[in-house]
Structures are given as structure tokens and as C-alpha cells.
């Protein structure tokens, strides 16, 4: 039995995958790789078909949380025999599964070039909602959806809708959970990230890996880690980072709250790349126009691992400029 939660369905899909597999899933219309199978390969066509069915089920469940989740026509393709089975990009000679339709005309169209942003947002939102469902915080999920749907009616662009889902989630977490409860919820959520979401942590600094991913999908314009340190004795780490043009940084999707930055996706992804289950955010600063020529705003903040006291009262879903 597959199960009905996002975590159970994703675990089932992962159990079908193989490092040496030659088959993979794409949308037959857009050629996008669908979450949660975007980085997975399968040993046989039958295993890939089962994964395709489970992927459709996963996206149906995810659509409970966000009605704007794109519809995909998931099909099975095979890598070119001349190409290594785990090639990052399949050969143009890949062949679609002849037993599956190449197009489902009754399905709403997918979102085309915006899909990368959508996938990042939905991956984070999905694991957070899973964590909420298993938590004692009754009413939190409904409160988030009420906040989101009230605003979503005024938004048309798919990217902005997904960003608004994260913003609405952060708003209710800040309102209803104290910093320790936010830490527990988000660290638990990170444990449910797709299995390959942590792969690049081996080759890069974890915070750099997170922010580079967001930059690649245009969620931020640029970033610079201005200072990083490691305490060998306590094994704690810290980063002081400047983030420019962040889509959730007091403008854009969070334009009603110019004094805060939504750190929810950064923290969840960072937890997924760290062994620690304790993070704090301090020294939050929204840079003035004289210090930042970018639009939207630029921010500077410090993120630390380790069990430090959250004396500044900051949560993790979103934080406000120090002194505000």
C-alpha cells in the first residue's frame, strides 16, 4: 500500500528508484521533470510507470494545499543507450512510453518557463504541511489556507502564487507558534525533503548551496556570505550573509510587511543540509537605499547553528529587522 500522505507517497517513489536506472519521468507537454521524481531514475519501465502513477497521486495531494499546482502529463522516457544511465540531462534520443498518452487535452496547461520557481516553492510548502499535519498545532493548516486563499484571488502569475503560499505560511507560523515551536516544526519538515535535495551539500557550503539554488530560479538576484566561522570545540557554525533582490524580502509577495524577510524556505532547505536541529537568526538588517541600489530590498542577517539562546526573540519562518 502506497499511503496517502506526501511523505508516504514520496517514500514509495524513492523505493522504486535505482542508481543504475535508465528510465525517468517527464511531462509529455512541457518536458519538465516532475517533483518529487525530478532527480530519480528507474531500473525498468514497469517501475517507472508505477512511479508515474504515484507522482500523479503526490501532486493531487499537494493540490489540496495549493490549488494552483500545475497539471502534468507524466510519461516515462528512456535514456539514450549511448548515455550513462545517471546522466544529468537525458539525450534528445530518449523515447516516450508508447503506452501512455503524450498529451492530456482535458488537463489545464502547465506553467512553462516558471516551473523551476514553482517546484522549489511547492517542495518546501509540501514538507511544511506534512510536518503541520503530524504536529499538535490544531487549526494551523486551515489558518494558513484561509490567509493564502484570501490573497490568491488577486494574483494571476504562477510564480507569485507559489511565493504567496510561502508568505502566508510564514505569517501564520509567526503569529501562532513561538520560536521554539517554529524550530521544532521546520527541522521536522526538513527531514522530509526529497532525497536528492541534499546532494549538493557534499560539494558546497550548505548556505551557499541553498542560496545558489534560489538564485538559479530567480528567487533572489544575488547573495554574498560576508563572514563565516566554525567553532571547532562546539562544532557550531555561523554565517553573516547579504541577500539582494530576494522575492520574499519585504517587497513582492511580502510587500505588506516591508520590515520583515520571510526566511522559511531558506531555513527548511538549510536544515536539510545540516546535521544540527538548532538554528538561530540574529542581527537582522534591512539595508538603506544608500547601502543598496538593488530593487527589491537588500538584507543582512546572521544565521548560527548550535543551542544558543534566542535572546532576540526571532523565530525562523520570518524575521524582522532588529529593533522593529
Describe this structure in words.
The protein has 324 residues and is of the alpha+beta class. It folds into two domains: 6-108, no CATH class; 117-320, H-NOX domain (Alpha-Beta Complex), CATH 3.90.1520. 35% of the residues lie in helices and 16% in strands. It has eight helices and nine strands. The protein has helices spanning 6-16, 45-65, 115-133, 140-152, 158-176, 179-190, 206-216, 264-271, and strands spanning 23-27, 74-78, 95-96, 222-231, 236-244, 260-262, 279-286, 298-305, 318-320. The strands form three sheets. A four-stranded antiparallel sheet has the order 4-5-8-7, with helices on one face. Strands 1-2-3 form a three-stranded antiparallel sheet, covered by helices on one side. Strands 6-9 form a two-stranded antiparallel ribbon. A hairpin with a 4-residue loop joins β4 (222-231) and β5. InterPro entries: DUF7551, DUF7552. It holds the Pfam family DUF7552.
